Amino acid sequence: MAALAATCFAANSAQDADISVDPVIHLFPTTALNTDSVSKVFTVKNKNASTVLNVGTLSFGAPHADQYIMYADTCSNAALAANGGTCTVSVKYHPTRSGSMSATLLIPSSAVETPTLTAFVTTNESAANEATRRLPPVLSAVSIPATVTSNTSTTITWSALGYDSSYQTNLVIFNCAGIVDGSCGNSYGDANRVYASGSLTPVSSGPGNWTFNSVTSTQFNYSHTFTTPAVAEATDFVIRFYDKSQGDSDAVKGTLSLLIPGGLPGITYYASDTSGRRIVKSITP
Length: 285
Known about the structure:
Helix content is 9%, strand content 41%. By secondary structure, it is mainly beta. Strands 12, 14, 15, 18, 19 and 20 form a six-stranded mixed sheet that branches. Strands 1-3-8-6 form a four-stranded antiparallel sheet, with no helix packed on it. It has a four-stranded mixed sheet with strand order 2-10-9-5, covered by helices on one side.
């Protein structure tokens, strides 16, 4: 799709006899979140032999206009002399979220044939970045004691498979007492949330058994010890695992509720959970 769009933009730019932009297309390199790429200078030229061209204010167009920065702009509101007058503008890629990002550099002018000349900018996404973006982490193992007792020290261990090196997990528990409509632990902000571990880093990690475009996943292993909520009678609790990478934090994104595959030993889904993200466990006095 990007290649087709780039071809269309190139054709439109090349057809105008009065004004041109060079380059018509530029591919920026893979760039870390919230940093600037190397810059690229675009040159606009008046090819009309006898007429001055007045350039309007340059801007970026969809789909990802917010991911690019324009500076050192000598084109906006410039008057380009006939027969070769030029101006320049520098562009940098400044990603705030992951993925392949494209935009159009829009150059309005008094040229009759092409009132808005267009250059195309896009990015190169590495296989590792694509794997991180497209394949979220999934719990591959969870171990919870068979009997969980009120107000005692309990340790839960789990493993997650994923492609990002910076995952942090938050273990969250919801009290289901008196909730009969299956809504216990529907979302992180529910009023019946009684415990949250905060961001936990893995205790160990190693190669996982997934691959994507020759990129090997990582298995992240966690262990967390905490004091269970106090109860006077046997009470069901929902346990959920929320995950966030450093890239998510940099992009000001929320946490991801981890999928828990069926068939894990000793694990029971909450009764109304059709998405496989809530475990139910009874805490006894």
